[in-house]
Amino acid sequence: MPQRIEQMVAWLETLPGLDAFTFEPASGDASFRRYFRVRAAEQSFIVMDAPLEKEDVMPFIQVARSFEAIGLNVPHIHAQNTQEGFLLLEDLGSTLYLDQLSFSTVERLYGDALGALLTLQACGPLAGLPLYDRDLLLREMELFREWLVDRQLGLALSSDEHAMLDATFEVLVDNALRQPQVCVHRDFHSRNLMVTPRHNPGILDFQDAVIGPVTYDLVSLLRDCYVSWPRSQIEGWVLGYFELAVQSGVLRGEHEGEFMAWFDLMGVQRHLKASGIFARLNIRDGKAGYLQDIPRTLGYILDLESRHEILAGLVALLRQRVIPALGKEADSSAS
Asked: Roughly how many angstroms between the first and final C-alpha of the chain, as a whole number?
């Protein structure tokens, strides 16, 4: 038995009510964390394994308690071992939003998710959370240039292309910073939302929460890197959410004229970041499965070509160089 598993088992054996238990892998994620489902006395729990040299469990603990306190359905922490990086969590099941979303279920499931998001933005914690500041926003977009364009695709950009990216990044940062700032989950999408019988949705992977732009989590959900919907439907959800946010005091009525542009450009920042992360997961962590999500993720940016002139240079780079290079890479992998 690997040493890390031995440590986990030894800790579980010290907990009351877990005298006889079984465990099995539940899932991994895009970080270094692993999860195990533990069953004992007809109860089921999840153990988070976060190796101390790779992960810090304290942000998870702090954000979980804050979110639970405002009524969000996050896993309750039953026991913690911060010295070794183990948490015993409530089991919210194994049914991801991603696996249940369809044209017949999306209105109900997204309705629940948007309700939870409104609670997060209206009541969520702000004290103690880091700011989604200029440096962080820029570092995230640089993942696109470093990991996707350079390392994954091997594209050498011209000085004009680098300058265009720099200028575009600045516009996207300014767009993010001029929005009302709220509590941001930062990964509010279909792989981190669970379908639960009560108090849907269950919310996972919230440890990187920050204080940031009001449209960020909305973009994460509605322009999801893992599932897509017609633009007209997305815009209807966005405008509906805007009205609810105004009623709840999160936004003001005068924001209406800017809100869709905020949403669009916030999405570009997120999609650049996500595409870079997917490439990094492949190169650094050997998780090649995320590469298949890059075309959809960048496709959201291409769809905005006619709506935002400031994106013309970025769209040209994607159409002329990045997307063709992705296609060639996919063809060579298939052959």
From this structure: 38
Dist. CA 30–CA 308, nearest whole Å = 32
- Tokens at residue 234, please? 């997305």
Find out whether 70 and 59 touch, Cβ atoms under 8 Å.
no
* Six token digits for residue 203: 């919310």
Question: Per-residue confidence of the chain (335 residues) as pLDDT tens digits?
Answer: 588 999 999 999 999 888 789 999 987 555 678 999 999 888 999 999 998 888 899 999 999 999 999 999 999 999 999 999 999 999 999 999 999 999 999 999 999 999 999 999 999 988 899 999 999 999 999 999 999 999 999 999 999 999 999 999 999 999 999 999 999 999 999 999 999 999 999 999 999 999 999 999 999 999 999 999 999 999 999 999 999 999 999 999 999 999 999 999 999 999 999 999 999 999 999 999 999 999 999 999 999 999 999 999 999 999 999 999 999 887 777 66
Using alpha carbons only, give the angle 111, 116, 117 rounded to the nearest 5 degrees: 95
Q: Count Cβ neighbours within 10 Å for each residue of 199-238 and write b for 16 or more, e otherwise.
A: ebbbbbbbbebbbbbbbbbbbbbbbbbbbebeeeebeebb
- Pair 97, 109: CB distance under 8 Å: yes
CA distance 152 to 309: 28
Task: Name the amino acid, one letter, at 6.
Answer: E
Q: 328-332: list long-range contacts, CB under 8 Å, 24+ apart.
A: 329/152, 329/153, 329/291, 330/291
Distance CA 153, CA 311 (A): 21
Task: Please give the backbone phi and psi of residue 247, each rounded to the nearest 5 degrees, phi first.
Answer: -60, -30
What residues are paired with 131 via a beta bridge? Answer: 211
- In the block, tokens 């009623």 appear at 247
Concatenate the DSSP letters of all residues of 14-47 into one string: TSTT-SS-EEEEEEE-SSS-EEEEEEETTEEEEE
Separation CA 59–CA 205 (nearest Å): 11
Helices (H), 201-248: 216-222, 231-247
